[in-house]
Structure formats: structure tokens, C-alpha cells
Amino acid sequence: MRRTLPPLKALVAFEAVARIGSVTEAAEELGVTHSAVSKQLAAIEAWFGTPLFENNRRRMVATPAAAQFARAAGAALDLVASAAEAFQPQAVPQVLEVIAPATFAMRWLMPRLPDFQAKAGEVDVRVRPMHTGEDWSGIPFDVVIRRGEALQGDLRSFALLREEIGLMARPDLAARPGLMQRLGAPAGREGVRLLESVTRPGELARWLVAAGLPADLAAGAARFGHFYIALEAALAGQGVIAAPIEVVADLVERGDLAEPFPELRVHGPDYRLGYAPAGEKAALAAAFCDWAVGQAAAGR
């Protein structure tokens, strides 16, 4: 059946004027001139054969019948616009697969990702945290970040940052008088417990030596399977931990952790990141690496 419809241009102009109440503002919404809207209003009134607006010099007020028609026209135009939007192909974001050490991924990388995604546009960065000792060589990736180890020779590799290890504790524990003398002492003598992760061996001992304390105090430390678990113990006030400043900087800024001896730090391992220069997403991976290096430089 053939539809009887008013001129569509005139219908759009009429609906906008009836809804907004102003020819000038309707023209601005539609991106046309005042006179163009006025011509379309004249055309639709001629098609209906009756005035569609009250005689009001200040505002364009539709007659009751015209207002009802305008609401129906608006709903129909909304439906057409919605259908047109659904018909258009949607942009599919690129996926960038990144593998990185677990604690570094959770505490350093992921909080910064919104900045990269805001700059890169339609990119879905998927971070896979890896634990120390896990074999990552067979895992598909676009960018790899490793701590304390060289990357495969076929990857384009970049230095990201080098850890600085400091002693960290909950602020109330860090402020305890005579803390240095209490480190590692028995609890009965008001000692302060040492915490360490088995995935970061030797770091606590090296910090103790830098502080002029016996390295073998580290032998009595409470050990945890992963660094992030040991860090949670420190946040709970269970003791002190030698931790990379870069990874816990936000906890220090928020006041969750404190560094009682900021002048005593030791170097930790280097982080490197890389990507396959011949890979399908080499350009995106290179942009990510440039961004990450810039983030590390800004944080120094």
C-alpha cells in the first residue's frame, strides 16, 4: 500500500520547531538557515491545508492537533535514527595482548592503561599477569614485559625501568621508636618481623647489609609464595618488607605504606619490554612500548 506522507524535509523541520518552540533554535539544531526552516514550515502547512502553530509572536506553539502529530513524528524519527545507527557497521577495537610480571602488572601497568587507551583510541589492551618461574615462551603476545631477564633475540627490546628497593611498613609500624634495632629481633623483645617473598630472593638481605645489619637476619623472615601476598601482610601491619619503590609508590602516596629509611635503598632488577617487529600488530605494539617508556621516565 502506498503511504501518504508529508514532505520529509518539511516534517523534520516541523517536528524540531514544535519540540523546541523556536525557528531560530530549530535551525541551529538542524544546521540550516532560519529562512530554510520557515520555507519548510510553509510547505507542510500547505500540505495539511491548515495552520499548525498558534498565533504567538514570542514562541512557536503548535496547535493541540499539531502537537499530537509532532509527538508521533518525533517518535517515528527516533525509531528511524535508532535503526540507522544499528545498521551501520560498528568499529571493532584492536586487541593488544600484553604479558607482564603479576605484581608489576597489577600495581604499575594496569592503573596507567586508561591513559594509553585514551591516546590510542579503539584499543582493547589485555594484560596477562605472569608469576615468577612461569614459562611464557609459548604464550601468544603482542608485547612482553619481563623483570631481571633478557628477551628473545628476535624481539625489539627496550629498557623500561630499574627497580629501587626500599624498606616499607605500615605508617604506625614505620614510626615505632628504635625501629632499626628491632628489625628481626624476637617478638618477646618487641622485635619487628621481617617479610619476604620467595620469588624475590636476596633483596631483603641486600637491604639489611646496606643498613649495616647482618644479612643472616633475613633467614628468620616470614616467607610468602608471591610478592603481592607478602605485600598484603605488610599492609596488614604484620611486619616490614623490602619492596620496589616503583611498584608501591601509590600506596606510599595514599599513606597506606611508609618508608622509614628513605636514604637506604638498593638497586633491584631491570625491566625490559619488547615486541616482534614483523608481527601483525607491530605498529600498535611499538606505540605501546613508546608510551610505557614515557610513563616510566615521567615517574622517575
What is the CATH C-level name of the largest domain? Answer: Alpha Beta
What CATH architecture of the largest domain do you see?
Answer: 3-Layer(aba) Sandwich
Instruction: Assign the structural class, choosing from mainly alpha, mainly beta, alpha/beta, alpha+beta, or little secondary structure.
Output: alpha/beta
Sheet with the most strands, sense and barrel status: 8 strands, mixed
CATH topology of the largest domain: D-Maltodextrin-Binding Protein, domain 2
Q: Strand-and-helix sequence, N→C?
A: HHHHEHHEEEHHEHEHEHEH
Beta-strand content: 15-25%
Helix proportion range: 40-55%
Shape verdict:
elongated
Walkthrough of the structure:
With 300 residues, the protein is of the alpha/beta class. The chain has three domains: 8-87, Orthogonal Bundle (Arc Repressor Mutant, subunit A), CATH 1.10.10.10; 94-162 and 269-299, 3-Layer(aba) Sandwich (D-Maltodextrin-Binding Protein, domain 2); 164-268, D-Maltodextrin-Binding Protein, domain 2. Helix content is 43%, strand content 19%. The chain has helices at 8-20, 23-30, 34-48, 64-87, 102-109, 113-120, 171-174, 179-182, 203-210, 227-235, 245-253, 282-299, and strands at residues 94-101, 123-130, 143-147, 156-168, 194-197, 222-224, 240-244, 265-275. The chain has an eight-stranded mixed sheet. Helix 1 (8-20) crosses helix 4 (64-87). The longest helix has 24 residues, at 64-87. GO terms for molecular function: DNA-binding transcription factor activity; sequence-specific DNA binding. This is LysR substrate-binding domain-containing protein. Residues 6-63 form the HTH lysR-type domain.
